[in-house]
Amino acid sequence: MTIVYPRRQRQLESLVRKLGLPLEAPIKWQLLDLALTHPTVSDSANYEQLEFVGDAVVRLAAAVILWEKYPDCQVGDFAAIRSVLVSDRILAQLAREYGLELYLLVAGSATSDKIGQESRLADAFEAVLGALYLSTNNLDLIRSWLDPHFEQLATEIRLDPARLNYKAALQEWTQAQFKVLPEYRVEEINQPNRNQERFAAEVWLHGKKLGEGRGRSIKAAEQAAAKVAFLAVNNPENT
Question: What does it catalyze (predicted)?
Fold first, then answer.
C-alpha cells in the first residue's frame, strides 16, 4: 500500500531506512503517514488514535525487553525503570535521534512552538510505534531498532540512583528529610539562537538554592537543576 503523493512516500521511506527496516517490510504506509501528521494539519486525519495505540505498544516493548534482559529483577524495579523509558523526555530524545521532526507535518502556531516540541515528538514517536505495530499486529517491525536503545538506557538507569528522573528522586529526598517539596523557579532566557537552551531553572528548599540548570524546555531545565541538587545533597562531603 503506497501513499497517494510520491514525495511524501519518499519521505516515509527515508525514515524507514533510518530505522534499519527494509522497504519490502509489510508496512502500512497510510498509517505511518497518519502517525506523522499533527492535529493542526487535520482535525480528523492525524496521529491521535495511533498515539493511543502506541502508548500501549511502547510500554509492552519496554516490559518485554526488561523481562528478557533482567529476569531476576523485582517487579517494583521493572515499573520504575519502565516509567523512565516511556517518559516524554526519553521518547522525544529517541525521536530526535531519528530526525522525526523532519517528517512530522505540523501547521499553524505549532510550527514555531518550541516549548511544545518535546511533547509533539514524544506523541509522534508513540504514533509511529502504533503504526508499525498495527502493520503486523506484533512487535516485529519495532524490536530490531528499539531494543538496543532501551537496553542501553535500562543499563544506565539501573546504575543511576535517581533512575534518570532527578526531579522525582529529589522530591522523595526532601519529603523524607523535611516533609516538604522543593520549589522550582524558572525564567526564559533571551537567546540569539533559538535552538539553544531556552530556560533557566533554580531549585530551592527552605530559602536555600540547591541547584540550577538550563534546558530547551521548562521540564528539561527543571530536570537539570534537580540533577545538580540531588547529586549535591547525596555527596558524602556535604553531609
Answer: Endonucleolytic cleavage to 5'-phosphomonoester
